[in-house]
Amino acid sequence: MSKFILVLFLVFSSLAVASQSFAQAITPAVEVSQMVNINTADASILADRLNGVGLARAAAIVRYREQHGAFGSVDELTLVEGIGAAILANNRHLLTVE
Questions:
Q1: Do residues 85 and 78 lie in contact, with contact meaning Cβ atoms separated by under 8 Å?
Q2: Which terminus of the chain faces fewer neighbouring Cβ atoms within 10 Å, N or C?
Q3: Looking at residue 34, what is its pLDDT?
């Protein structure tokens, strides 16, 4: 019985390590220098670094920030007209408000 428990432990441990490695493999690694602070970036940086964000959307982000103040979280980006859940999801790994 103790061998069976040991085998189960080893199998589950292996699965946990494998799933963690898989999650790391599919999550894009982004260096801190590539992160985009949506509270400080100008329109050209936003348009250049964010997927699906051109100059018009980038200008809307800056305009929203100027009118409403700093973003409290990355999720608040969807309050900007033209920025939906899909754009946020495609760029979340790049965004910060720090």
A1: yes
A2: N
A3: 85
Q: Can you give the length of the chain in residues?
A: 98
Give Cβ neighbours of residue 52 (< 8 Å, ≥ 6 apart): 86, 87, 90, 91
pLDDT averaged per 10 residues, the chain (length 98) = 60 54 52 86 98 97 98 97 96 96
Determine the Cα–Cα distance for residues 69 and 57; give it in Å rounded to an integer. 17
Contact 58, 50 (CB under 8 A): yes
| Two tokens, residue 79 | 């309050």
Report the distance separating Cα 25 and Cα 52, nearest Å. Answer: 23
The pLDDT value recorded for residue 20 is 54
Indicate the pTM of the whole model: 0.68
Task: Report which of 64, 11, 8 is spatially closest to residue 38, judged by C-alpha positions.
Answer: 64
